[in-house]
Specification:
alpha+beta
């Protein structure tokens, strides 16, 4: 059965919409498969040797843009570990505090009975298990020249269970409770263990023990 063409609104009634569409190019999925994917115009990458356009207030565009150092970011404003501008000698006091804690732990028979002398102020590249190292140091200004230090001691054990790491954490907590390490240019006001935990590492054969120490120092 033949049907009369349906007139399109706004067009002449004598010509149907199908007739008007005959001259147009239909974008059917089968046609796209035959034609293949459309090719995008390749835009050449900018030459890294060309200087970038200088904005208002920028330095010479020919000079490389350098990331500010950690000390400059700390002095610029509050951060995660630094709440204010650090006084002079604070990084040195962090290292001196870590060295003092390591010396106190190496002198404790309860700790050396398990770890020997494998107690480090910095993480060793090729460790021998079990071992203990100061893995992180943070500091912030409390008031004036008074600085709060947060040190994280990490014990790594390959005993095959959590027993050895728990023994190390317990011995370290007992030593730090009575320790009074000497810090060059600073006076120790307070020292305590703020947090301790023992858990398996990503490698199931290793067990980690974490001891977080909080110390407050002031200038001499």
């Amino acid at each position: 059965m033949l049907h009369a063409p349906i007139p399109h609104p706004g067009r002449s009634p004598g010509v149907s919409a199908c007739v008007r569409c005959l001259g147009r190019r239909h974008d059917h999925p089968a046609d796209r498969r035959r034609r293949g994917p459309r090719r995008r115009r390749h835009r050449p990458d900018p030459d890294p040797r060309q200087p970038r356009p200088a904005a208002s207030g920028d330095p010479d565009p020919g000079l490389p843009r350098l990331r500010p150092s950690r000390d400059r970011r700390a002095l610029a404003g509050p951060g995660r570990a630094v709440a204010g501008p650090l006084p002079k000698g604070s990084p040195v006091s962090d290292q001196a505090l870590a060295d003092g804690l390591v010396a106190a732990l190496k002198a404790a028979p309860a700790v050396t009975a398990i770890l020997g002398q494998r107690i480090y102020a910095r993480s060793p590249r090729v460790p021998t298990y079990p071992c203990l190292a100061v893995s992180r140091t943070e500091s912030r200004v409390v008031e004036g020249e008074v600085i709060e230090h947060l040190l994280t001691l990490t014990c790594v054990s390959k005993f095959g269970g959590p027993e050895e790491a728990r023994a190390v954490v317990a011995a370290v907590r007992a030593v730090i409770h009575d320790a009074r390490p000497t810090i060059a240019g600073r006076r120790l006001v307070n020292l305590r263990v703020a947090y301790a935990d023992v858990f398996p590492a990503a490698e199931r054969e290793l067990t980690l023990g974490i001891v977080r120490v909080r110390a407050v120092t002031e200038p001499l």
